[in-house]
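Design request, tokens follow.
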């Protein structure tokens, strides 16, 4: 029986070969078959991706939340923004040095710097002053900045008037922090350390515009000699200042006198 079944299978195979021929495998260089196979695989991958995504949920994206300062029915006062929990301090907000962060001793502005004033402090203060303050107060602090010269409603006062010359340094820090009049506060743009750097530079500006010969260091000429540049710079680059080699004498050199003939 088994052999009879094999003979029947052979006869069917022979009849199939006579009608259609022996099936041939596609050649490796048959690019048409390759493209068709790629399309089939891509379509299958697309179907698999759709099936997987259809099973996903978006519960993590749709969470119970409220917008800032929005109304909330969860709390009795209906405020979504909640006050700070009693006895807690936010990270980075532990302001133990009150004078450093307010410029005040109690409710009175202090008149001392919370750290030593060095050349680096003044250079940093000048940089921050020119960025945030000079557009209105000008680079010399006389109130003739670019913004008032273009029709701003109120011109800021000059730092060189007697009232501001006598003002304590804590007053300037408080004005930068809290604002004054139509001047907005800069607490969010300028960190406390840079605010003190600016205050130190404002004091240097006041001294520069109201100094006397007694304030000039020994060995320095008045007016100061102009700086020398190694490269003049272009419109896109700053000039390179040549390093100082020696201090020049404050007194001008005397020219040799000619003897009368």
């Amino acid at each position: 029986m088994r052999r009879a079944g094999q003979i029947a299978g052979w006869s069917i195979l022979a009849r199939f070969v006579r009608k259609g021929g022996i099936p041939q495998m596609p050649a490796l260089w048959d690019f048409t078959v390759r493209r068709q196979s790629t399309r089939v695989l891509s379509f299958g991958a697309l179907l698999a991706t759709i099936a997987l995504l259809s099973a996903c949920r978006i519960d993590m994206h749709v969470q119970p939340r409220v917008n800032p300062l929005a109304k909330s029915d969860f709390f009795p006062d209906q405020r979504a923004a909640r006050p700070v929990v009693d006895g807690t301090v936010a990270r980075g907000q532990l302001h133990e040095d009150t004078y450093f962060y307010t410029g005040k001793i109690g409710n009175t502005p202090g008149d001392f710097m919370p750290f030593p004033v060095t050349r680096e402090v003044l250079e940093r203060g000048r940089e921050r002053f020119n960025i945030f303050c000079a557009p209105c107060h000008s680079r010399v602090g006389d109130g003739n900045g670019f913004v008032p010269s273009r029709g701003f409603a109120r011109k800021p006062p000059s730092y060189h008037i007697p009232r501001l010359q006598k003002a304590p340094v804590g007053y300037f820090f408080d004005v930068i922090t809290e604002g004054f009049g139509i001047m907005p506060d800069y607490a969010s743009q300028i960190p406390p350390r840079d605010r003190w750097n600016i205050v130190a530079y404002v004091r240097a500006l006041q001294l520069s515009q109201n100094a006397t010969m007694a304030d000039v260091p020994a060995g320095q000429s008045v007016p100061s000699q102009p700086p020398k540049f190694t490269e003049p710079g272009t419109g896109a680059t700053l000039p390179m200042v040549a390093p100082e080699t020696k201090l020049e004498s404050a007194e001008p050199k005397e020219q040799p006198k000619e003897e009368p003939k």
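Comment from the thread starter after seeing the answer: thanks! The mean pLDDT is 80.
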